[in-house]
From TrEMBL:
GO terms for biological process: methylation. Keywords: Methyltransferase, Transferase. This is Class I SAM-dependent methyltransferase. The lineage of its organism: Bacteria, Pseudomonadati, Campylobacterota, Epsilonproteobacteria, Campylobacterales. It comes from the Bacteria. It comes from Helicobacter jaachi. One of its GO terms (molecular function) is methyltransferase activity. The keyword rRNA-binding does not apply. Pfam families: Methyltransf_23.
């Protein structure tokens, strides 16, 4: 992120914070890098731009963090936040190293409560939320945040679907090997393999089950927990299989 920033703003000063100094040396290779902190309370100064890219979901006290960001930001500055979107990928709830799981509504509420104005950029990455926060009103303000409210009831409906598959006496596979791990555990013996397009994984095993390419076999039932866009893409690419929506 800082490398890209300095290419566009070559005379800017850059700073970094991390929970440890393990990778500190990498930051000092960046032109105009000024200071590194491993204690958030020790950070000094006020900044034009603060980025938290896949960071906030790993922090315990997010309200304290949002308040700290407000004090560190200049009046004309902007905070750029990106986190996984649990509304698009509800299985993120089971990512063990995420302390928090955000929908747009909960992320919006966090920064509004801390005193920020909030904007949602038009361009968004699939299954992620990118949010801008500032002390000043932004051009693309949010007029109706309630439209982004996420109802967790749908998760219970999908779990009920998986339970029905587990007990129907048939078998199939699960696409993916990350979030799909939990799905396979719910499915029990119904899940006989994992499907993946990653050539580095195909031919190996996960949870004792083979990882195979979806180009193999014919007429298999494959549970897809990874969202609408990938579901549509793979259903069209491998029409010989039956993909089951689990998202």
């Amino acid at each position: 992120m800082l490398y890209s920033f300095i290419k566009n703003f070559p005379h800017a000063e850059t700073y970094a914070y991390d929970v440890s100094r393990h990778n500190e040396h990498l930051f000092w290779e960046i032109p105009n890098f000024s200071r590194f902190w491993d204690n958030v309370e020790a950070i000094e100064g006020r900044f034009d731009c603060i980025t938290l890219i896949h960071c906030l979901e790993h922090i315990g006290d997010i309200r304290k963090t949002a308040s700290k960001l407000y004090t560190l930001l200049k009046d004309s500055g902007v905070v750029i936040i990106q986190v996984p979107d649990v509304a698009q990928n509800m299985w993120d709830i089971f990512t063990y190293d995420h302390c928090h799981h955000f929908s747009f509504y909960t992320l919006y509420k966090l920064f509004i409560d801390a005193g920020f104005y909030v904007s949602l950029p038009h361009h968004q990455i699939a299954r992620q939320i990118t949010l801008l926060a500032s002390k000043q009103p932004l051009k693309q303000g949010i007029e109706n945040p309630d439209m982004f409210y996420f109802d967790c009831k749908h998760l219970n409906d999908v779990l009920a679907l998986l339970e029905s598959l587990r007990t129907n006496g048939s078998s199939g596979g699960v696409f993916g090997t990350t979030i799909s791990t939990f799905v396979a555990l719910v499915l029990g013996e119904w899940a006989q393999c994992f499907y993946d397009e990653d050539k580095r994984k195909i031919g190996k095993t996960h949870l004792g089950l083979p990882i195979v390419s979806p180009s193999e076999g014919d007429g298999c039932e494959i549970v897809m927990p990874l969202g609408e866009s990938l579901y549509a893409k793979l259903s069209a690419k491998y029409p010989k299989h039956h993909f089951i929506r689990a998202f």
